[in-house]
Specification:
Layout (H helix, E strand, L loop, with lengths): L1 H16 L5 H15 L4 E5 L2 E8 L4 E5 L6 H7 L1 H5 L3 E5 L15 H15 L4 E6 L2 H11 L4 E7 L15 H11 L2 H10 L1 H9 L11 H12 L8 H12 L13 E6 L6 H11 L4 E5 L10 H13 L3
Helix pairs in contact: 1-7, 1-8, 2-8, 5-6, 8-9, 9-10
């Protein structure tokens, strides 16, 4: 963790001195980002403001709630192979991400309530709900607060503080450096272009050496997850909010969750979610726990296994 923090500080300084790097290529990349997002989602009005979402596929509905730095597009990416197994994916953008509002109360609990309004808008009743990383916080609150709307709960690499320890705590200088980088699409793009593997380690909490052990499709998935953090400037509120809630001791009453629950993590996740998943398995009644030995925070090399596990879990008569 110390080396990751030191690298973040160094990256902040590099960004401040090298912001003009490959300006033309950067503009082209950002134009591609806008083209990728344009027309792929819709927005509804809720009691807390705008809520963006996308729907893809057909079959039993499953809501995939994205992680830190994501948006509806990350939700679709995380669930793409679940979709291939015959599911319709509902992918919202959480508070402070892309076109979704950032209300005064942006807690995971309030986000869960807003997602019920999305299901009402779509005419959906009780569906499976999955959340990845910080998105697992809202997913858990959804199952807890609205069990009549949640048939199954899947918590993937859950970024919950259950042991009173923030896995990504920063000094004031490091926080300044991170805020500088994450507030600028240009600087963020430059850092990804200059040091993509280190960014995968730092932001995706995954050992980049794993890229050399997996097939091409999984390498592309890791690169896509990193690239889709752009436009980072339109996610600043969500990023800071996630940092607060992931670092704060969790207020969620996990022991009161009563829907079938599947917990997924990887032993080498640099954010330590394997320990979190094990703690949750002891708090959520009858929860199923799967921890892969490798894969990092993006379950690299296990996307097919994860998708099959989720599909089987949701379709199971149990």
């Amino acid at each position: 963790m110390v080396s990751r923090r030191a690298f973040l500080t160094a990256l902040g300084g590099l960004a401040l001195t090298g912001g003009g790097y490959a300006a033309g290529a950067c503009r082209g990349a950002l134009a591609q980002v806008e083209s990728r997002l344009n027309g792929q989602s819709a927005v509804i009005r809720t009691t807390v403001g705008a809520l963006e979402y996308a729907v893809a596929g057909s079959g039993p509905p499953l809501m995939m709630i994205h992680g830190t730095g994501g948006g509806f597009d990350q939700g679709l990416l995380f669930a793409s192979k679940v979709r291939d197994r015959g599911f319709q994916i509902i992918a919202p953008s959480r508070f402070g991400y892309l076109r979704s509002a950032f209300p005064q109360d942006a807690s995971p609990a309030r986000q869960a309530d807003a997602l019920v309004e999305l299901l009402d808008h779509l005419g959906l009743g009780r569906i499976a709900v999955a959340g990845g990383s910080a998105g697992a916080l809202s997913a858990a609150e959804f199952a807890l607060r609205h069990p009549d709307r949640c048939s199954h709960l899947i918590l993937m690499v859950p970024a919950a503080n259950l042991a009173g320890r923030d896995p990504v705590a920063f000094t004031a200088l490091q926080r300044w450096a991170v805020d500088a980088v994450l507030g600028s699409d240009r600087w963020f793009w430059a850092l990804c272009a200059l040091a993509p593997r280190q960014m995968i380690r730092t932001l995706l909490a995954t050992d980049p050496a794993l890229l050399d052990t997996v097939d091409e499709s999984e390498r592309r998935r890791a690169e896509t997850i990193l690239a889709q953090l752009l436009p980072i400037s339109r996610k600043a509120d969500g990023l800071r909010n996630d940092g607060f809630w992931a670092g704060t001791p969790s207020p969620t009453a996990y022991d009161r969750i009563a829907v079938p629950t599947l917990l997924l993590s990887c032993e080498d996740d640099l954010f330590g979610t394997a320990e979190t998943a094990r703690l949750l398995s002891g708090r959520i009644a009858d929860a199923r726990l799967v921890v892969y030995p490798t894969g990092g925070h993006i379950w690299l090399g296990h996307d097919d296994d994860v998708a099959s596990g989720i599909a089987g879990f949701v379709r199971s008569p149990d």
